[in-house]
Specification:
Blueprint lengths: L46 E2 L2 E2 L4 E4 L14 E4 L2 E4 L2 E2 L14 H18 L7 E8 L5 H11 L6 E6 L10 E8 L7
Parallel strand pairs: 7-8
Antiparallel strand pairs: 1-2, 3-4, 4-5, 5-9, 6-9, 7-9
């Protein structure tokens, strides 16, 4: 016997037979299995003078905090990592540009700022794992290579260098942001 189509043009579905009842299966208890060792620097949660950071992000500040006027955090510590905003050639006390028109002076000030902010975060240049370097002119690349040898040691941090059209202020020629460890060291 043919089924009659409804208003939508579809045929009604056939009625299905009820499935037989299944037996209840007992729930297994979870068995703790040993995990394979992972290649990590530290399994402990870092502590700073402010106490355990845990899963929170602790804002890194200086007094005065010139970055606050730009509505930017100097950086954050999350677990045993520190994420820094780009450090430019600014006097961290006054906010004035240091070394206008002088790349070497700006480079020196940027690395001095990195050291200061890393120290405030409980880290150091020896614990930097990654830097992003922004240049307004790639002709300064050889000076960056020399600076990496002066300010960093083996194992070298990972590095990205990009030429940009401009930075936050027209006088700035270089900016460096960094990621670093707190309470650990680079292995390699």
């Amino acid at each position: 016997m043919a089924r009659k189509a409804n208003k939508t043009g579809r045929k009604p579905a056939k009625a299905r037979k009820a499935a037989p009842a299944r037996k209840a299966v007992p729930v297994r208890k979870a068995v703790a299995r040993p995990r394979a060792a992972r290649n990590v620097v530290s399994r402990t949660r870092p502590t700073t003078s402010l106490g355990a950071v845990g899963r929170n992000a602790r804002r890194i500040t200086l007094k005065p905090d010139i970055y606050d006027g730009f509505r930017i955090a100097l950086g954050y510590q999350v677990g045993n990592l520190v994420f820094l905003s780009g450090q430019a050639s600014l006097d961290l006390k006054t906010g004035a540009v240091v070394g206008k028109g002088n790349f070497d002076a700006q480079l020196k000030q940027v690395f001095a700022n990195l050291k200061t902010v890393l120290k405030a975060a409980g880290s150091s240049m020896e614990q930097v794992v990654k830097v992003n370097i922004y240049l307004t002119d790639m002709k300064h690349f050889p000076k960056i290579v020399d600076a990496r040898g002066k300010y960093f040691k083996r194992p070298w941090p990972a590095d990205t260098i990009v030429e940009v059209g401009a930075l936050g202020l027209p006088e700035l020629m270089i900016e460096i942001e960094a990621i670093a460890l707190v309470g650990g060291k680079l292995i390699g």
